[in-house]
């Protein structure tokens, strides 16, 4: 079988990263259906949101809940849009498909996905992998020594997963999950803005944009709290110009030289760094779990002690929350305090942590034994969903 056409789908709970193995980079498409107050008769699927003039008061229909695919109608609508001739131009008929799934995915979801791709889209071959596995593959290929042992911290929309890999295989008992992700941060940010400034409880889309623009991870929380209360040049202060969807389509941080006329603004101080603090202290919002650093240490304890130096030397952070400024420095500081001084520590955050796993899928599609690991159309027609049992041999 010749690997002529492979489609990689990093099917995240917030965005789907989709592209062919011949593409340089994937298309990043919102994995949802949206309805707007301004256009009640039309639903906007995925990246159709760019056609919407007024994005205030968006109502989201999400295929994922709590990190797992539960609404098949919404997901199929998004996939049909992505693979329509007018959208991406990707025809899945007779294509090879690599798709991602969350760790410990339910067997019913796995079977449903396989049935859709073989029976609805008539793909030639199919394989499902976790985004962390693809990230580990890409990380190994980027290193000169082709290191195949690492820890992947996947800061996604619904969860943070910490997954150690030893010689390319994940250690199942060491996988840890924190029930904090981009969705929790955005929802908490909405509450804070609504309590302190103006009501944005129905403005998830705008609040998420503000979070992405103004928030950063504090390297010294107590010092930054003091600076936020100061007056003068050293004060931590950000003035944000809100979109009116007429003159300002997307909000932005006001610069000193910007002239304000009729635009509405919000002034932020400690909100900029206390929101991402939930990643390190989930108990701040009532989630009774440890932060990312002590959870990583617990994951490490589940691995053989001789693997600790190589794992700590190769920590890779992916996902949307990895884009917060200061994340690498704070993680290093937190983890360094918890491990012995004689152990090495190196943390890598890619330039594009969102599409990093997709790039790993692109490299995986060129493995010499790629088709040995996939389920082909002939195998599916013979054995049905039971053909997926072969995936366990390569995990």
Number of domains: 3
Strand order of the largest sheet: 3-2-1-9-10-20
Residue ranges: pLDDT <50 for 5 or more in a row?
none
Which sheet architecture does the biggest sheet show?
Answer: 6 strands, mixed
Relevant CATH superfamily of the largest domain: ATPase, nucleotide binding domain
Task: Note the beta-strand portion.
Answer: 15-25%
CATH architecture tag of the largest domain = 2-Layer Sandwich
Shape: globular
Task: Tell me what you see in this structure.
With 395 residues, this protein is α+β, with helices and mostly antiparallel strands. It folds into 3 domains: 6-129 and 365-393, ATPase, nucleotide binding domain (Nucleotidyltransferase, domain 5, 2-Layer Sandwich); 134-179 and 289-348, ATPase, nucleotide binding domain (Nucleotidyltransferase, domain 5), CATH 3.30.420; 182-277, Actin, Chain A, domain 4. The protein is built from 13 helices and 20 strands. The protein has helices at 72-82, 107-120, 131-142, 182-196, 204-214, 221-229, 271-274, 292-301, 308-312, 327-336, 356-364, 370-373, 377-383, and strands at 6-11, 15-20, 27-30, 33-35, 43-45, 59-61, 64-65, 68-69, 96-100, 125-129, 150-155, 160-166, 169-170, 176-178, 238-241, 252-253, 265-268, 315-318, 347-348, 375-376. Strands 3-2-1-9-10-20 form a 6-stranded mixed beta sheet, sandwiched between helices. Strands 11, 12, 13, 14, 18 and 19 form a 6-stranded mixed beta sheet that branches. The chain has a 3-stranded antiparallel beta sheet with strand order 5-4-6, with helices on one face. The model has no long low-confidence stretch (mean pLDDT 90).
